[in-house]
Specification:
The complex is a heterodimer of chains A (about 140) and B (about 120). With about 140 residues, chain A is an alpha+beta fold. Chain A is about 35% helix and about 30% strand. Classes of the chains: A alpha+beta (about 140), B alpha/beta (about 120).
Chain lengths: ~140, ~120
Amino acid sequence: MPDCIYLHYTVPGDDFTRAGEASADLKLRLKKLGIPPEAVRKVSIALYEGEINLAIHAHGGEIDVQITDDAVCMTLSDQGPGIADIPLAMSEGYSTAPDEVRSLGFGAGMGLPNMKKYSDEFDIQSTVGVGTTIKMAVHVD
Amino acid sequence: MTISRIIEILDAHLLTEHADCSREVHTACGSDMMSDVLAYVKDQAVLLTGLNNPQVVRTADMMDMVCIVFVRGKKPDAMLISLAEARGIAVMTTDKTMFTACGLLYSQGLQGGVN
């Protein structure tokens, strides 16, 4: 494996059915690279929740992935509405998702908590009216 | 419990014709909320759901689940079935309700898979 692999994905904001394509692609790539299954699972779930959030709340966004021998690092950035109260948004069960999203099986207020739960490193920065950037890393043992 | 046994117990109809029904399923999860599935499910599992959209397959794939059961006779479209086939996930439909389907599998020894 090269010292570092960079990947980039664009998540469309107007087609919820496509949310998850980046996570699925990354999962296959990590498996082929021989990344341990538990790390692959953590990356897949954390990124999938992130993709769903980008599609639901931010009208889409960008995902940058960096794979090294030590970790899989993911940066999700959007130019959506931003998050006014990050601690509140990080609490389980809190959601601003509309009923339409709930009818699709999401919007239970578990997205951000799940992203943090499955990441070994997690950071979120957001400015209302500007957008949100989330950085996650999963260590590869 | 094998996928074939689940088909028998639920009197279900298999929709992914190339699925390996000899695969073992260790746990089960019944939910229409995919975020809950992503939060709590662990181990080689079957997902029972009344939700019918592609994110069901995406969620199952991310969780390394091996089988999806659509309850109340729901039939997913060809795109969903194709997506599941590509991921090696068996998909079936049963006329049983969520409660009954979960109860039948539980009574036959399948456990919940929360961590």
